[in-house]
Amino acid sequence: MSIQTGDKIPAVTLKVMGEKGPQDITSEEIFAGKKVVLFAVPGAFTPGCTMTHLPGYIVNADKIKAKGVDTIACISVNDAFVMDAWGKSQNAEELLMLADGNGTFTEALDLVMDGSGFGLGNRSRRYAMIVEDGTVSHLALEPTGAVDVSAAEKILALL
Predict the structure, then answer these.
(1) Do the beta carbons of residue 54 and residue 44 sit within 8 Å?
(2) What is the span of the domain harbouring residue 94?
(3) DSSP alpha helices (H): ranges in 67-140?
(4) Based on the structure, what is the number of domains in the chain?
(5) What confidence tens digit (pLDDT) does each residue in 62-81 have?
């Protein structure tokens, strides 16, 4: 069963780009004692993610943080090099670009999307969640192909 509102975020290690290359970051470091908006995309540089999903969070980052959010994080089943390049290409300095390269976090949430028909392999379903001190307080899971309930404007309205 996939993660639900009220569930704790699983303990996993992800990657972010550091000064000397990819570095580990644990889910506890990201979520413990913080209010976090986490949104997941099927793939960096893909059209819906690049033209619709990510830009809303970039444009609304200040408004989201003004609502008491400590971190806005974007996660994808991509490596840290790709997530870093995508973030830089989109001027996403206000966002934490998380790499779930092996899909460990996505699998732990049971939110895997089979993108093999498009040559993508297993990826993450598109969603956004509000996480407070490691517990999911809201989950907005998209149907395949949609960018609606997980859009930045919808999440901002819930904060």
Answers:
(1) no
(2) 13-158
(3) 80-89, 104-109
(4) 1
(5) 999 999 999 999 999 999 99
- The CATH number for 66's domain is 3.40.30.10
Report the largest interatomic distance among the alpha carbons of the chain, rounded to a whole angstrom.
Answer: 41
Q: Has residue 141 been placed in a domain?
A: yes
- 74 is known as an active-site residue: no
Question: For 83-126, what is each residue's pLDDT tens digit?
Answer: 999 999 999 999 999 999 999 999 999 999 888 888 777 889 99
Token representation of residue 30:
């990201």
| The CA-based dihedral angle spanning residues 141, 129, 77, 95, taken in that order and rounded to the nearest 10 degrees | 140
Catalytic residue among 12, 44, 49, 61: 49
Whose CA is closest to 81, among 23, 11, 13, 12? 23
